[in-house]
Write a structure and sequence with these properties.
Layout (H helix, E strand, L loop, with lengths): L4 E5 L7 E6 L10 E3 L46 E5 L8 E8 L6 E2 L41 E4 L12 E3 L7 E2 L44 E4 L9 E7 L11 E7 L3 E5 L8 E5 L10 E4 L11 E4 L6 E5 L8 E5 L12 E3 L11 E3 L6 E7 L8 E6 L8 E7 L11 E7 L4 E4 L8 E4 L9 E6 L11 E6 L2 E7 L8 E6 L5 E5 L12 E5 L3 E7 L8 E6 L4 E5 L11 E5 L6 E4 L8 E4 L8 E4 L11 E4 L9 E3 L3
Antiparallel strand pairs: 1-2, 2-3, 4-5, 4-6, 7-8, 7-9, 10-11, 10-41, 11-12, 13-14, 14-15, 15-16, 17-18, 18-19, 19-20, 21-22, 22-23, 23-24, 25-26, 26-27, 27-28, 29-30, 30-31, 31-32, 33-34, 34-35, 35-36, 37-38, 38-39, 39-40
């Protein structure tokens, strides 16, 4: 038996328990043992004698405490410890081969395993399988279906790089004999596919667009852009450019240079009835040493100086093109502006033929002076086209002029079969049935060098033709151009004027009843001095918008149409080259109108704004190197 007898003595409440030691009579002084938390373990063994749950025989649990006094807090042997997985790529799934058992995860450890590649964040269980040669969903298979965004491949039986869309495969890689492009209209003929140039009127839809003609200049099914170049450094002998469109847009690598002389504008028509578009370049009235219009004939080989006619003129301001004698060949009407000594110059008709044009087959029309514009239409519905000439001047000292209607007939045109309409300086002529009575009306603008206010005219058409007495005057500020459109969508045509003088007010006259126009029903839209105006729905809301270009300003303005009309506060200003003329068309075939601007002799490239559902972005402009584009660019595309 032990010589020691331990007798516990009760401790007062709040005082540490003391274990009293009874020892033999021959022993030394008794030792006092303290167990403050009364857990049965003296303080020299207990690592926390204030906590009865902590002692050497306690179970270790996940609580951030060294419960069993082994010098370690929690750890793998603690009750509640968890298996953790290293997630090195932080994709939410850890590596089953690199684990830790502990109460809390260490850095980059998570509670979910199963990652088949912890070095690739695109690979983890449940991820979408992609065509990337990676087991994205960790199912042990690579690039197996179903796969998001799996490309579709089309069987190409004729080997032209296009399939017809009837036999297809969905796979990450093309099966043998399959290609990425569809749309082939004949998969047994390699010469017929959407990428082939159209051969017009050959009985075959060569480029598979559903038509056997050329909607553009090189018959490839993409819109093209013509940039007529007037002059640089006072030199009118410049190449005008054709930028050919493509699936990737425009580039100087796909550009033709055609020699021209002071080209101010261009017109595209099939002049010689060969089904290829031809181009007429017009020099404009600005240069005394640029008087000839150039005709370039289109063909399967494109355009060249070897296939070109030159039409002498008298500083023409405009040409009009139409088959005037119904022989299948287009005529070119040249609106001559200024002769060797004065404004008294006659317009010409160059008669078309299978051999083209020459001066021996030309008619002068006596009467009009300084013709600024022309329009061709069957005004009296007799089956023969008629010609309207707008006259800008009779002499340097007067603004009073006469506009002329030359009536077509089986005998052609003569000065005896005309109607004279009194007017003032007329830069622009438009023809439309404005009052809706079934007869075409004639709208002419009036520009005055010296006065801000001037009256433009609408000559009302009738069974008896036209008369200066049967006209309405619309006051504006020397408008250079007008546009006719139903701006408020009420079924009646309205008229807008681009004002050149006097505060640069653009006016919109609303027709409130047949032939009813009044200043009380007129809107004033302020902007810079304008000389070009275009009406078109640019944002897809059905209301025509007004696009203007300003003289001497690097700003083009869009006035947005709406159910409440126009407002000077509801507009958008687009930065453009100085005094830039423009054309509007869908060059990338995305359904949104695009705008191409010339440089207005600013010596800059032409600017192309691509339209979108969000409008036009000045920070996203395509530059077309040219320079000297004083007149209007031309977007070539026929629906």
């Amino acid at each position: 038996m032990s010589p020691w007898l331990l007798v516990p003595l009760a401790a007062c409440k709040g005082e540490p328990a003391v274990v009293d030691t009874v020892q033999p009579a021959d022993s030394g002084p008794a030792l006092e043992v303290v167990d403050a938390d009364q857990d049965g373990h003296p303080s020299d063994e207990d690592c926390d004698d204030a906590n009865p749950a902590v002692h050497p025989e306690a179970a270790e649990v996940c609580d951030g405490v060294d419960n069993d006094c082994d010098g370690q807090v929690d750890g793998a042997d603690a009750e509640g410890a968890t298996l953790w997985f290293m997630d090195a790529d932080q994709d939410g799934f850890g590596d089953d081969a690199e684990t830790a058992f502990d109460c809390a995860p260490g850095p980059l450890f998570i509670g979910v395993g199963g990652d088949c590649d912890d070095g690739d964040p695109s690979a983890f269980p449940g991820n979408t399988e992609l065509c990337d040669e990676v087991d994205n969903d960790c199912d042990g298979a690579v690039d197996e279906p179903p796969i998001e965004g799996t490309p579709t491949w089309y069987q190409d039986q004729d080997g032209d790089g296009w399939g017809d869309g009837r036999d297809l495969a969905v796979a990450c890689a093309a099966p043998p004999g399959y290609v990425a492009r569809s749309g082939d209209c004949d998969d047994h003929d390699a010469e017929l596919n959407p990428g082939a140039p159209e051969i017009p009127d050959d009985g075959e839809d060569t480029n598979c667009d559903g038509r056997d003609d050329c909607p553009d200049l090189n018959c490839d099914g993409y819109p093209d852009i013509i940039l007529p170049r007037a002059y640089e450094d006072a030199d009118p002998s410049l190449d005008s450019y054709i930028y050919y469109g493509s699936a990737s847009g425009f580039s100087v690598d796909r550009r033709d240079a055609l020699p021209t002389l002071g080209a101010y504008s261009a017109i595209v028509r099939d002049l010689n009835n060969d089904y290829y578009p031809d181009i007429v370049f017009i020099p404009g009235r600005f240069l005394s040493d640029a008087e000839d219009s150039y005709v370039y004939y289109g063909s399967a080989e494109g355009f060249s100086t070897d296939h070109r006619d030159i039409l002498p003129g008298e500083r023409p301001n405009q040409v009009c093109v139409e088959d005037l004698n119904n022989d299948g060949y287009m005529e070119v009407v040249v609106a001559n502006f200024y002769g060797p000594r004065n404004f008294r110059v006659d317009p010409y008709i160059y008669w078309g033929s299978a051999d083209g044009f020459d001066t021996a087959n030309r008619t002068s029309l006596s009467g009009p002076h300084a013709s600024s514009d022309c329009e061709i239409a069957d005004l009296n519905d007799d089956g023969y086209p008629d010609i309207v000439f707008g006259s800008f001047r009779h002499s340097q000292s007067t603004i009073v002029t006469t506009n002329w209607v030359f009536w077509g007939s089986s005998d052609g045109f003569s000065s005896e079969n005309t109607t004279a309409l009194a007017s003032h300086h007329t830069p622009d002529v438009d023809v439309a049935d404005i009052d809706g009575d079934g007869h075409l009306d004639i709208l002419t603008t009036t520009y005055d060098d010296f006065r801000a206010d001037s009256d433009s005219f609408i000559y009302w058409g009738s069974e008896d033709g036209y008369s200066s007495d049967d006209a309405v005057r619309l006051s504006a500020r020397s408008p250079w151009q007008a546009e006719i459109a139903d701006f408020d969508l009420d079924g009646a045509l309205d008229v807008a004027f681009a004002s050149y003088h006097g505060g640069a007010y653009n006016y919109v006259y609303y027709q409130t009843g047949p032939r009813q126009f009044a200043e009380a029903a007129r809107e004033e839209l302020t902007s810079e001095t304008n000389f070009i105006l275009h009406a078109q729905d640019l944002n897809g809301d059905l209301y025509p918008d007004l696009l203007t270009s300003s003289l001497g300003s690097s700003t083009s303005t869009i006035f947005w149409g709406s159910s409440t009309g126009f407002s000077s506060s509801h507009r958008e200003a687009l930065p453009v080259p100085d005094s830039a003329p423009f054309d509007v068309g869908d060059v990338n075939l995305d359904g949104h109108p695009d705008i191409v601007y010339g440089d207005g002799l600013a010596g800059e490239p032409s600017w192309l704004y691509l339209g979108s559902a969000d409008g036009y972005d000045p920070d996203d402009v395509i530059l077309l190197p040219a320079g000297g584009v004083l007149g209007r660019p031309v977007i070539v595309w026929s629906e």
